[in-house]
Amino acid sequence: MNQNDRLLDELRGYLPEYMAQKRMVVGRGKKLIRCINPQHSDSTPSMSYYPKTKKLHCFGCGATYDLFDVIRMDYPDCDSFPRQVKKACELFGVPFPEDFGRDPAASPAPRAGTRADAAPAGAAPLRALTPAARISPPAPEEPAEPPADYGALVEEGLRRYGAGGAYFAARGIPQRLCEKYSLWQDGERAWMPVRAGGRWACYCARALREETKPRYKNSPGAMELFGGDHLAGEGEGRALFITEAIFDALSVEACGYQALALCGAGNTRKFLSLCAANPAAANSYTFFAAGDNDEAGRRMNAAVREGLAELGISCGAVEWPEGAKDANELLLRDPDALHAALDAAANADRYEYERKNAASAVGELLDLSVKRASRSAVPTGFPALDDLLDGGLYAGLYIIGAISSLGKTSYLLQIADSIAAAGSDVLYFSLEMSKLELMAKSISRISYRLDPSAERSDAFTARQVLRLDLGMDERRAALLSAAVEAYKKTGERLYYKEGLMDIGVQEVRAAVREHIRLRGRRPVVFVDYLQILKPSDPRATDKQNTDRAVVELKRISRDFDIPVFAVSSFNRENYRNAVSMEAFKESGAVEYSSDVLFGLQLAGAGEQGFDVNAAKARSPRAVELVMLKNRNGVPYAKIEYAYNAKFSYFGEGRRILR
């Protein structure tokens, strides 16, 4: 099959779509239509379409037609096969080979249905086109004729019959539109002229009775765009609906919107070319594809939207109600439904925006409130801190900062252990210490709390837990055993993720998701600590990477509805000063994205004569937890602690409000 044969085969496949433009549905099972042979008065539908041959055949008169036969019937000027092929290419947006018909090898075999013996007795046969006629050299080019102008026809039609008529009224088209677009009817047809380029460029005349053939009588040549003048000049703006047929465009305008009819899906390229030639007008509109509610209409919508997208113009689409065929059918059946469909398309962006106002979110707020009411806060194990936080930890981002060696990890770990011991899952990301070192600190703290001796002299330090004295006495061995057994119960809900510059916020998110999938429980997340998370972008600055990490941890707390507690280091220049938001390293996102912000400081920090080394040397150390920010509660407070660094234990004291 050569190139021209492939072209002809492709075009013949458009016959069902062509017939659909004539409001004659073919190709769906064995559904019959009335024969289109003008010499056959077909009172009972007797013509069917055969997909294999891509032809129509009438059982009554025996006539058989392909796409080119039907085009020749509808377009009298297409009196040669090359012209029929060219017309088909124009209608369906297919490039027409300029040398078509010059090469005898491109000639198709004679087509069944054009023979005189295919017509019934008494019927005028269709004129046969011989192969020789189809491949004869084209006639010499004639001087270009001026564009057609049917102004006199329109003027005479309106003078004799007046605008409008019963047929248009029956199709739901108001008189004002008949006058606006110069529509009229005579005794046989409803006339719909089309303006283009300031002239009446073409027309479509629809038969008023079934027996009038052809059903659609178009002016010679290609149809122009009905309503194409919307794209002339600078454009009117607003919504512009793109339909297939003129009556559908009129139906849209009857609802108060602007519309443009392609007058055939093949005019899609003509519409896009008009948009490209008039960018100011095209860009002033919001376009909506409103093709028929069938496969051909959906293809038209897709072609319009894709073509406009290539021009950088967005285009929505109308969602027709179930059972609706097109705009005009819906106008006649349910005008309110057509209004609603057009309104929904034209105002989709506004409706979507309105759904974002606060009133629309009240239901979401109540749903969240009910959900959280059924879930109590997670106690930290420090009563004064829980009281300050209205019961404990809620979903959100908590950040705590302190100078080096002040006990940030010990404080965080004590909270994590208490939460796990109380029955909640904990996911602890340790980016500096190994999980065994952390476990040793926890067991050391437990041994300190369980030690019955007055001076707690039998308690174990973390180093002693990691390196046991095998010669310990029986009393210390029993204490260690009790501490280990107590820790086992805590450890059943405590999961460590250790890493060294290989865990970033995405790994944290993935681990949280995996924990929920495998455990079916949302964990409380601890990150120790911010500044050594894996950078999101190695080329970015430390501040940029820290900011991104804080924002993402906040997003994780929101997405999974969980508390996330992270440690941050302080700037060195703040080691002797009282804690403040400025003390946090790279503090931009820490200050703004955190829900609750804490600082640990040695008691007396910032006061005159304060000696940081002397304060650290005390045992236990006098430490203060300072609340610097609380998005949903008391904005500022202090809690006193006695920190026994040797056994990683914080003893809570009194709470001080400013």
From TrEMBL:
Q: Which Gene3D superfamilies did the record assign?
A: 3.40.1360.10, P-loop containing nucleotide triphosphate hydrolases (3.40.50.300), Zinc finger, CHC2-type domain (3.90.580.10)
Taxonomic lineage: Bacteria, Bacillati, Bacillota, Clostridia, Eubacteriales
The SF4 helicase domain extends over 371-657
Task: Give positions of region: Disordered.
Answer: 102-121
What's the name of the protein?
A: Toprim domain-containing protein
- Source domain of life is Bacteria
**Low complexity compositional bias: what residue ranges?**
108-121
